[in-house]
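Q: Got a minute? One more chain.
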Amino acid sequence: MQHANDPFAPAESTATAPDRRHEERSSRLREVALLGVVVVLVAAGGVAWWAGAPTAADVVWAAADVVALGPAVVWVAADLRARRWGADLLAVLALAATLAVGEFLAGAIVAAMIATGRVLEAGARRRASRNLTALLDRAPRVAHLRTGTGHETVPVDEVRSGQLIVVLPGEVVPVDGVLPDGGTFDESALTGEPLPVSRPADDTVHSGVVNAGAAVDVRASAAAAESAYAGVVRLAEQAAARTARVARIADRVALWFLPASLLIAAVAWAVSGEPGRAVAVLVTATPCPLLLAVPIAVTGGMSRASKAGVVVKDGAALEALGRASVLLMDKTGTVTRGRPEITDVVCAPGHDIAGVLELAAGVEQYSPHVLAAAVVRAAASAGVTPAPADDVTEEPGFGVEGRVRGLRVRIGRASGTGRPAWAAGAARRGRLDLASVLWVEFDSEPVAALLAKDPIRPDAARTMRRLRAAGIGEVRLLTGDRVGNAREVAAMLGLDDVDAEVTPAEKVRAVEAASARGVTVMTGDGVNDAPALAAADVGVALGSRGATAAAQAADAVILDDRLDRLADAAEIARRSRRLAVQSAVAGTLLSLVAMLAAAGGFLVPVAGALVQEAIDVAVILNALRALGGAKRGGPAPAELVRRFESEHEHLLPARAAVRHAADALAEGATTTADTAVRTAARLVAEQLLPHEQAEESELYPALAPALGGPEGTVTMSREHAEIGRLARRLQRHLAEAPEGIQPDQVDDLRATLYGLDAVLTLHFAQEEEAYFTLPSS
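A: Always. Here it is, folded:
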C-alpha cells in the first residue's frame, strides 16, 4: 500500500485510478450495449415488416432511432461544451429529422451506423491520462538510516536533510545527497549514460540512480519530495496534462461538411416547400464514411502495427504519427544498444587476444559490473571459455582482481603511472574512438587494453533513411549523455542536430519547442525519457528490456529490441492515415452528390439511406486496405542471415589480429612483429576468407529477392574481391620471407594490413546495417 505522505504520489490522488478504470470499462460496455440494442431493434422491425405488420415495424424502428438519439445528444453536448463540433452533430440532426417526419426505417439505419461507428472508434480513442504506475513502482519506498550498530529501515519520506543513509548494492538511491567516501552508480535512468559512473568523495548523487558497486553511505541533501526522482514523476504528470487532444480526421472533414449539409437541406426545403426533402438531404448527409471508414482505416493500421511489433495505444496517436514531421530520439538504449561492448582489444607484444580474454573473463565473470559482463561476452564471441579464478575481489570504481593460473590478474583502471609505448597508443585510440579503456594487468604489468563502447544499433541507419522517406523532415538526438559521444552518433547517422547532457526537464522543453514546428514524435526507453514521451504529440517507447516507465508514458510501444520497428510504425501510420483521408474525402464527395440528388427530389429519405449505405460499403472496402501491407521485396532468409550475423561476432579476434599485426610492425621487422603478421595471415586464411566466400555463394543469392535482384549485392561483392586481393598480397609477402620479415617489407606490409583492416571494418558494418537488419525477429 502506498504511504499516506508518499512524495512520489501524483498530484491527482491515486485512489481515483480504479474509479477511472471502472468508468472507462463501463463506457466501453455502454457503447457495445448500444450497438447490440439498435441491431436487435432494426432486425425486429424488419421481421415485423416482413410479417405484414408495418405499424409495429415503424414502432420498433422508431425505438431504435430514440435509443441512439439519447447518447448521441450527450456526445454532441460534450463537444459543444468543449467548443467544437464534429461528425456527431449531423448524426443527431438526421436522427431527429427522421423521427419528426416519420421516416422511421431511415432513422433506424442511421442509428445502426452511428452505433457501429462509435464502437469502432472506441478502439482508437485517446486515453484521457497516462498511467504513471511504473514510475511509482520504481520509486524507493524505504531508506536505511545509518545507526551506531548498523542501519535502520524507515519510510523514505521520513528522511531529512543531513541524515546519513546506507544504499545497498543494486538499490535505487532514495534521496539526493553527498557521498562521504565516493561510489559507483548506474545513472542511465536519469542521464542516459550507459556506462557506470564513479563519483569521488564529497561528490553529489541524485535519487533515481542505482548503486552499481558496494554499499555506500549518502548524506541526504534534500527530502524525498524535493529530490530528482520525484521531480521526474511530476514532470511526466505535468507534461501529460499539457498534451492537447489530437483532432480526429472525421471532425476535421466535418468542419466544412456540416455547414454544407445544413445549407443544402435548408435551400431544398425553402425552394420546394417540402420538409421531406430536407430530411432526405440530412439522411443522405449522415457522415457514415466519417463514422465508419475512418475508424476502420485507423484500427486497421493499429492492427498492422501490432503485427509488426508496435502496439499503438489509440487511434489518435496513429493519426498523429501519420502526420509527424519532427522526430526527437534518445541515444542510450534507443539509437545505441544501451549496453557497452568490447569493440577492440590491444595487446602488448608477446600476448594474444584469446589468452588475454580467457584470463580477464575468468576474473570478470564474478563481477556484477556492466563492463565485466561486456568482457565475458567478448570472450564468448571469441570462442574462449573463462579460466577458473580464485580469491576474486572488487574495489568499486577501480577494478576487479583475482588469481588465475598463478597470475594476479586485474582489470579496470591502470594501477601504475608509467606506460609503455603500446599502452600510450592504446590510450590514445580510446580517446580518439570515444571509448572507455579497461586495462588488463598480469602481476601488475599491463598486458592489454580493452576498448568498450555503447555501439550504434545496426538497424539505426536504415531506420533513419526509411523515416526520412516516410515524411519525417527533422531528426534530432536528445540525450543526457556526453556531448562528444552524442555528436559522434548524430554524425554517423546523418541527424540534423543534437542536444546533449540535457536533464529530463530540458528534454520536455525541447519537445515543446519542437511541437511548435510540427507534429513531434519522441522516442526513448528510460525513466528519464518518460516526461518527454508524455509531452510529445506521439511518444514511442522501446519496451523490450522492461523500461515500463517509458512504455506507460508513451502512445506506442515497440515490443522487441528493434529500432526499425519505428520506421515500420511510421510507414503504416502514414498509409493508414492516407487511406482514412481518401475514404473520408471520397465518401463525403459522394454524399455531397447524393445530397444534391435528394435536394432535387430524386431521392426519398429511405432511398437516401440506402444510397448512403452503398457509399459506406465502397469507402469501407477502401479503408479495409489498411489491414494489408505495401508491396515489398521477397522475404529475407532469417535463419541464414542469423548464421552469418553470429559468425561476425566470432570473427572479432581474427579482425583484431590484423590490426594488431599492423601495429606490431611499428617496431620494425622484429620477431614479435613476424609472429603477429603470420598469426593474422593464418586467421584470415582459415576464418575470414571462408566466411566471405560462403557469404558470396550462399547468403547473397538468397538475399537477392529481398534486395530487388542480384544488383543489390554488387557493391558488397566488390568488397569481397578487395578483401581477397589484400589477403593474397599478404600471403605473397610471407612467401617472399620464409625466414622472417625483411626491413624493406615493413612499410608495404603495414599498408596492406591497415588497408585490409579498414575494408573489413567497413564491410562488416555495411553488412550488419544493410543485410542483417532485413529479417523480422
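A: The chain is about 55% helix and 15% strand.
Q: Perfect, thanks.
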